[in-house]
Description:
This protein is mainly β. The chain contains six helices and 22 strands. The strands form seven sheets. The chain has a six-stranded mixed β-sheet with strand order 8-21-16-20-19-22. It has a five-stranded mixed β-sheet with strand order 5-9-12-13-15. A three-stranded mixed β-sheet has the order 11-10-14, with no helix packed on it. Strand 6 and strand 7 form a beta hairpin. Helix 5 crosses helix 6. It is globular.
Amino acid sequence: MLRMPRCVWPGIERDTLADMANLSVSETPGQHRSCRKLVLLFAVSTAVACSGTDNTTGAGGAGGNTAGGSSGGTSNVNSGGSRNTGGSNSSGTGTGAMSSTGGAASTGGITAAGGVISTGGTKATGGNTSAGGITSTGGITSTGGAKATGGTTSAGGTASTGGIKATGGIPSAGGTKATGGATSGTAGNGGVPTIGSCKIFPADNPWNLDVSGYPLNANSATYIANMSPTTAFHPDWGTVTDAYGIPFSSGTGATPQPITWTASWGATESDPLACPTGTNQFCYPIPLTSPIEGGPSAATDSDRHLLYIDTAGAPNNCTLYELYNTQNPTGGSGWTAANGAIFHLGSNALRPDGWTSADAAGLPVFLGLVRYDEVVAGEIRHAIRFTVSRSYQGYIHPATHAAGNSTATLPPMGLRLRLKASFVTSSFSGPTLVIMTAMKKYGIILADNGSNWYITGESNEGWAPYMSGLLSGLGQVHGSDFEAVDTGPVSTNGL
């Protein structure tokens, strides 16, 4: 029995659909559900695509594909980098009595640039107080080497897919504690999460901050009450075979590929990187062999994220490239995608206020993934990405974009939550315990609209023996077990 993902129309109240999202139904592996609001350059008008067709290839996870086999769960329905115009505001006064009161600074390097929302019971305190400016220590040691699948060299370069492969690892016993369970000690690697030889953002980056001691958000109870608090958590990932989860690849020296944007905001909200020759201002060095979420057979209107880490500049200055709604490359040159984003992993710089990314919140997708190599190492040292079905048309830094509506009691993009300290984890072990521990320390960040309380992970064959335990273990965690922390004011700047 799997929880049914739901289609989301940002800016529209859909209480009936929200109720439907809490039903349990039997689903066929490979079944695809997707709801995206895409404004394409070649389209005359905005179209809402919502389908329920079967994907007979069994490819799951691309913005709503159902995973078969070891993944055992339904994939999330995201709204990714979709841009929402209904209910959005400019930087002045808009619907919902939203007022701009100037910027307010918060801790951990998070700076608010825009107005504070103070309507509908939502209170912003004009700058938050950190609990001692906590800095992360320790780190992650990756076991084993990088696993290359295919890895052929061409003009597009070489891509090593699926992240890091490790053998052995953590036993699973249905999410409960068993003899010989997982260790949860610090692996120790200089204080920040890593991927291969690359450090993932500085130690004081918002993603890497320990928020276990942060003060509560003044609206925590209100937000949680409007986030389907009785709904159980769901791990939204699985194996490469099932095409479930979001894959990523890494390498360097790839040929810059010209990109054609298909969304109306593609050219205006994607980071430019000029081609070596010609006039095209968008050429990203992403190998044409890089994996796309859901695999080559994923529905063309699904999320189809592409994540690639260029390791040039390692360890401190690697570069993350992300594309949304990426289509299969044709003709041996170039990518076609809705929009894209570039994140310099040695910097805390945010995207411009009001800009989207491959995620609706304007955040990097890769940073929030539950990765197999981290779980096997016994520790996740960053916040985790999650989704809810309804959100407010505002954001909290490091988010820079929103795709919600004017109901200010709904959670804004970038809202940081943590698993309550009172939640007892002593009966859990293995991957479930590793994830719960991270959710208490680093928390989770609202990054997109989608199924309630879905957390996102990478696609990796290593998950196969652990998914049953993760489904049952995380299924014992509910939205009501979380609380929102204060990481800064809500902004509508640029929306």
